[in-house]
């Protein structure tokens, strides 16, 4: 029996999604095509891999026995791709960078043109996400992260720590006044997250009774939150350099918010890839300097 690896890859996607529609979308295929491919695999094996119901697909006992080895095959295939990619010594082609919304909105527009001019044969693909991209599966080649990565097979550089504070526009402060204590601050219109629990968790650590449900404005888009504050929407907790870039005024209420570490990381299997190295070296030099320059402007 000679089964193409792609069939096992499709099997894993269906098992992971529990739905042919979702698995087809993940694979860039269509539901009818994937359904035919699954039926062909089950015909080759002579047994059903999934039980079908109105609630989706669930693995049969036979399917479960094949899942772990299929996952091991996928991990090996991913590592082979990383190793092959890691030996590339050319400075052409593409390199994929993952950053969060704040870095994407307020840093990269000022930094990337110089990189593109320096390496005109390189294509830079930027993934903007506030979640950690999967470097094992090459969702990105290089990632900038606002936490210390704990995965053992990653190579990382600590670039700097970013200060955070309470800020508002002069428009808002002229209208509502400047709070001078934490108690006065939480009575103001605070802009914060919707589903993200960063603000809630940070407030709890400082002993403040701030909940997302109590906020007058909520969004998980951090750049939007900043721009609403710029236009007089309320008080925001944000990075010092972003606040200074957008001419927000610092509010001193007698407390200190812990800074956020910034790490530059890639998978160890691709650390010698020339495209990845030049991008990491560029960001390691330029990003801390850019942030520090604006963080110091009060």
From TrEMBL:
Cited InterPro entries: LysR-type_TF_proteobact-type (IPR058163), LysR_HTH_N (IPR000847), LysR_subst-bd (IPR005119), WH-like_DNA-bd_sf (IPR036388), WH_DNA-bd_sf (IPR036390)
One of the GO BP terms on file: DNA-templated transcription
All copies of domain HTH lysR-type, residue ranges: 3-60
Name the UniProt record assigns to this protein: HTH-type transcriptional activator CmpR
Family designation: Belongs to the LysR transcriptional regulatory family.
A single GO molecular function term of this UniProt record: DNA-binding transcription factor activity
Keywords: DNA-binding, Transcription, Transcription regulation
The organism's place on the tree of life at top rank: Bacteria
Native species: Grimontia celer
Coiled coil (residue ranges): none
């Amino acid at each position: 029996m000679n089964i193409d690896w792609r069939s096992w890859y499709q099997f894993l996607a269906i098992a992971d999604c529990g739905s042919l529609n979702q698995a087809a979308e993940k694979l860039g295929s269509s539901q009818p095509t994937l359904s035919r491919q699954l039926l062909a695999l089950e015909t080759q094996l002579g047994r059903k891999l999934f039980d079908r119901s109105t609630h989706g697909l669930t693995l049969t006992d036979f399917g479960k026995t094949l899942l772990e080895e299929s996952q091991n095959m996928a991990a090996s295939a991913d590592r082979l791709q990383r190793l092959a990619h890691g030996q590339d010594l050319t400075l052409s082609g593409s390199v994929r960078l993952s950053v969060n919304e704040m870095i994407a909105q307020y840093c990269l527009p000022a930094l990337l043109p110089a990189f593109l001019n320096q390496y005109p044969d390189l294509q830079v693909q930027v993934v903007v996400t506030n979640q950690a991209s999967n470097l094992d599966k090459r969702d990105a080649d290089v990632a900038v992260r606002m936490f210390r990565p704990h995965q053992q097979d990653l190579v990382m550089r600590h670039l700097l720590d970013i200060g955070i504070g309470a800020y508002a526009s002069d428009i808002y402060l002229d209208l509502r006044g400047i709070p001078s204590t934490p108690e006065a601050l939480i009575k103001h219109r605070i802009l914060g997250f919707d589903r993200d629990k960063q603000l809630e968790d940070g407030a709890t650590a400082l002993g403040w009774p701030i909940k997302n449900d109590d906020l007058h404005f909520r969004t998980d888009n951090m750049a939007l939150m900043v721009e609403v504050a710029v236009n007089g929407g309320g008080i925001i907790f944000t990075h010092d350099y972003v606040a200074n870039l957008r001419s927000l005024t610092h509010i001193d209420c007698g407390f200190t918010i812990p800074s956020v570490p910034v790490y530059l990381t890639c998978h160890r299997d691709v650390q010698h890839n020339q495209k990845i190295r030049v991008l990491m070296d560029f960001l390691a030099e330029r990003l801390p300097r850019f942030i520090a320059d604006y963080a110091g402007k009060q």
